[in-house]
Amino acid sequence: MKKRNMAIMAVFLVVIAAVMLLPGTAKKLPPGAPGAAGPGTDATATFTVRTATVTRRSLQGYIESNGDIVVDTAVKVYPQVSGEIRSVKVALGSYVVKGQLIAEIDPSMPGSAYALNPVHAPIAGTVTTAPMPVGSTVTASSAIIGLGDITDVEAEAMIPERYVGVLKLGLKASVAFEAYPGESFSATVSRVSPIVDAGSRTKTIRLSFDKSDPRINAGMFAKIQLDTVIYANRLTVSGSAVLSDTSGSYVFIVNADGTASRRAVTTGADVDGTVELASGVDEGELVVIEGASVLFDGAVIKDITVTGASK
């Protein structure tokens, strides 16, 4: 009986050894181990991806803001005395010459009568704000109208405080208007306010148009794209190629044997979905820009960026 049991045990051990040596029964690496496939993935599967080449280029940073078209030369007109407006000689949009009579003020008090006090235009220009109506009571600090040179207009915008570090004279911008879809007008920053408004947390800038254009009128609403910092000669790739986890940012590089390798990278500037890769890749390397989220180190891939391509 004892010999029989030993024989059975020997046969059992031989069977176990044979099973372990059969193809496909090797012990699988635990998820996350070097060379192991990702959780729930098949190491023999082929993954369809799209790719792009790491290229060197310059990125133009910019700020988008809304603004208004204002006259460059503008003044408010005040009376010399307090009283009641008896007559207004101009209207909104009227052109006046320097010294022209624009209104008359009656400074009379109850029980007395005085001659009307004239208000003259201090400069030549166009009436840019509606005059105060006849019968209004004014003082020497009441602006009756506004005058300006509407042939010399500028764009005015309020830039959020977080961007004030890049504001300076000479920055270039493009200005667009709803009235002229698909068209933009070039402008240059000509003035930067020395203070930040405590209420709005913004700094006001003025932009002079590079070319005068009669289509640009005072009071128009403008959309402004202000060019700021140029990130020159940087290695770049589509932002969709860059993934991240607790270890940092990474991309998948396409190898010559049709597999993908995970590569840690350091990112820099990000402009309109194009990301600077400050380290981790070389110019001309091919990276996965679509389908990277399911890849793992050593994954077999099929590149469909170009119809019929297979890498």
Description:
The protein is mostly beta strands and 311 residues long. The chain folds into 3 domains: 46-58 and 233-303, conserved putative lor/sdh protein from methanococcus maripaludis s2 fold; 62-71 and 153-231, Efflux pump adaptor protein, beta barrel domain (Elongation Factor Tu (Ef-tu), domain 3, Beta Barrel); 74-148, OB fold (Dihydrolipoamide Acetyltransferase, E2P). 6% of the residues lie in helices and 46% in strands. It is built from 1 helix and 22 strands. The strands form 5 sheets. It has a 6-stranded antiparallel β-barrel with strand order 2-11-14-13-12-15. A 4-stranded antiparallel sheet has the order 3-10-8-5, with no helix packed on it. A 4-stranded antiparallel sheet has the order 7-6-4-9, with no helix packed on it. The protein starts with a helix and ends in an 8-residue tail after the last strand. Residues 22-36 have low confidence and may be disordered.
List keywords for this structure.
OB fold (Dihydrolipoamide Acetyltransferase, E2P); 4-stranded antiparallel β-sheet; 6% helix; mainly beta; 22 strands; 6-stranded antiparallel β-barrel; conserved putative lor/sdh protein from methanococcus maripaludis s2 fold; Elongation Factor Tu (Ef-tu), domain 3; 3 domains; 311 residues; 1 helix
